Amino acid sequence: MKKHNFNAGPSILPDVVLENAAKAIMDFKGTGLSLLSVSHRTPEFESVVNEAQALMRELMGIPDNYKIFFVGGGASTQFFHMPANFLGKKAGYVNTGVWTKKAIKEAKHYGQVEVLATSEDKNFSYIPKGYAIPEDLDYLYICCNNTIYGTEYHTDIDSPVPLIADMSSDIMSRPVDVSKYAIIYGGAQKNLSCAGVTFVIIRDDMLQKVVRDLPSMVNVNTHVDNNSMFNTPPVFPIFVLNETLKWLKSIGGVEEIYRRNKEKAELLYAEIDRNPLFRGTVAKEDRSLMNICFIMAEGKEDLAPEFMAFAKERGMVGIKGHRLVGGFRASCYNALPKESVEALVACMQEFEQLHK
């Protein structure tokens, strides 16, 4: 039976990327060595890092006055790296769920944190809007897509202060005006790679704004100055990231994947809204294209375990909702084919017929 991978992360990767990664594990670029044991200081691997940076710049339209580097530690490490480098007095955070709450907690070690807006009053089911951004902030921080609750920013914020964004779960899923951001970072294990590598896109002027003396591994300048090679980088995940970027370019880039992602999301949201057994959990204007959350309709809650088993029998993998929301979550990242969404919709319709 074909499996349909809706896991929230680590998530589905393109088949061609898996095939190329498997080949490189056995023989990396004709070196006769496995990618898993090749030196990161070789010209062959340095070319992978350089190509990945160039492809990111091309696909996202990253201006020349930005640097790109790759590190380990996940986005959770950046939760404290960002304030360690840039929070001197006060920073503003928009609280949209678990990941911003974690980032806020880490930032408080370094300075004053002002929560400018929050959607906690409605269990993070919407993106806050219409709040003031004080001009005396060191930076404004947001998480662009909220995997647990299924909300997403669909436009780029105009900020009078440097804007730092965690784009772990929607990077390259839609066009972004990079020039509106001072820093974009994220774990790559949703849309770009397997788990183990974090990307950081940083505007040049921010490199001069580090506010305190820091250990070498924490200082952003260390990784820029050493082209991601200050210590041994996560070699295999960077290779997978580069292969994913090549795949994305081959299918038409960010504009094309955005078209596909909208098509997939519209298909599934339409079924959630139509089917009397299910309902969505977030404000429609803030619905995520990446993480589509839904629950059983009022009065039908007792059918949830049955539907979970029913869907599993039909090859649906990873659709259990996060414990903080419950219900179901279909993560529709870039590499998920439309056919998988169609299969889930058919499954929901079949289940509806059984309970008419």
Protein described:
This protein has 356 residues and is α/β, with parallel strands linked by helices. It folds into two domains: 15-250, Type I PLP-dependent aspartate aminotransferase-like (Major domain) (Aspartate Aminotransferase, domain 2); 253-354, Alpha-Beta Complex (Aspartate Aminotransferase, domain 1), CATH 3.90.1150.10. Helix content is 35%, strand content 17%. The protein is built from nine helices and 14 strands. The protein has helices at 15-26, 43-60, 74-86, 98-107, 220-225, 235-250, 253-274, 304-313, 338-354, and strands at residues 4-5, 66-71, 90-95, 112-118, 140-143, 145-146, 151-152, 163-166, 183-187, 198-203, 278-280, 291-296, 316-317, 328-331. The strands form four sheets. A seven-stranded mixed β-sheet has the order 2-10-9-8-5-3-4, sandwiched between helices. Strands 11-12-14 form a three-stranded antiparallel β-sheet, with helices on one face. β6 (145-146) and β7 (151-152) form a beta hairpin. The protein is globular. 46% of the residues are buried.
Summed up:
This protein is an alpha/beta fold and 356 residues long. The chain has helices spanning 15-26, 43-60, 74-86, 98-107, 220-225, 235-250, 253-274, 304-313, 338-354, and strands at 4-5, 66-71, 90-95, 112-118, 140-143, 145-146, 151-152, 163-166, 183-187, 198-203, 278-280, 291-296, 316-317, 328-331. It folds into two domains: 15-250, Aspartate Aminotransferase, domain 2 (3-Layer(aba) Sandwich); 253-354, Aspartate Aminotransferase, domain 1 (Alpha-Beta Complex).
List keywords for this structure.
Aspartate Aminotransferase, domain 2; about 350 residues; 9 helices; 7-stranded mixed beta sheet; alpha/beta; 3-stranded antiparallel beta sheet; 2 domains; Aspartate Aminotransferase, domain 1
